[in-house]
Amino acid sequence: MFARSFTIWAVANGHKVTNVGPAFEKPEAFRKSVGAAKAFGRHEPLQDNMIFIALPFDCLLDVLQSYEPVNFKDKIVVDLTIPFDFTTFEPIHPKAGSAAQEITKVVDASVVKAFYPKFANALAATSTIAKEIHNILLAGDDDVAKRVVAKFFKDGGLHPLDVGPLRRAKELESLGYLHIAERQPNLLKLA
């Protein structure tokens, strides 16, 4: 849902978007449904300078490892992953501390964690909600990459907030899990 809303937001704000999936058919269907510019299959070269990752955590590293390392050289990877088990809705605690930190072990790129603390449909509607402030939280160790990502979001009407180094991605992912759990009434119990 977030990847869909993010793509709608990016296309509405004049960005070129490439959707990548395990095979060409899935990203092509997704591209057609949201109006994105391109669709690629899993092993095709990544051509854009910024790569946004919005995948279930259980397949995240496998997908990244299916690309040649050269695909990530001099690129910025923006991680939108919230690691939780889709079956049990329990959070997953990556060994490195966060999904973003796990990504740094697999790709040679600048990794920036991004978290949008509103529900996905609000992101797709930001072009029509001019007066409301829509913060997006960013964490990363490469300050230049964070500024590039911040400008990308700011140009689209969002308000980027730098929450610190990449190790803060763990807190953003925990916040993201609670955000998702809020929509699952059986996960959060009243005291």
What does it look like?
By secondary structure, the protein is an alpha/beta fold. It has one domain (2-181): 3-Layer(aba) Sandwich (Rossmann fold). 36% of the residues lie in helices and 17% in strands. The protein has seven helices and seven strands. The strands form two sheets. A five-stranded mixed beta sheet has the order 3-4-5-6-7, with helices on both faces. α3 (57-65) links the parallel β3 (50-53) and β4. α3 (57-65) packs parallel to α4 (99-106). The longest helix is centred in the C-terminal third of the chain and has 13 residues, at 143-155. It is globular, with a radius of gyration of 16 Å. The model has no long low-confidence stretch (mean pLDDT 81).
Tags for this model:
single chain; 191 residues; alpha/beta; Rossmann fold; five-stranded mixed beta sheet; two-stranded parallel sheet; 7 helices; 7 strands; 17% strand
Query: Compute the gyration radius: what is it?
Result: 16 Å
Q: Rough shape?
A: globular
Question: How many beta-strand runs?
Answer: 7
Classified by CATH, the class is Alpha Beta
CATH topological fold name: Rossmann fold
Described by strand count, sense and barrel closure, the largest sheet is: 5 strands, mixed
Placed side by side, the strands forming the largest sheet appear as: 3-4-5-6-7
Treating each run of at least 4 consecutive H or I residues as one helix, how many helices?
A: 7
Count of the separate structural domains: 1
Contiguous uncertain segments of 5+ residues: none
Terminal CA distance reads: 30 Å
Mean pLDDT: 81
Q: List the helices and strands in order.
A: HEHEEHEHEHEHEH
Structural class: alpha/beta
Strand content: 15-25%
**What proportion of the residues is helical, as a percent range?**
25-40%
**Name given to the CATH homologous superfamily:** NAD(P)-binding Rossmann-like Domain
CATH architecture: 3-Layer(aba) Sandwich
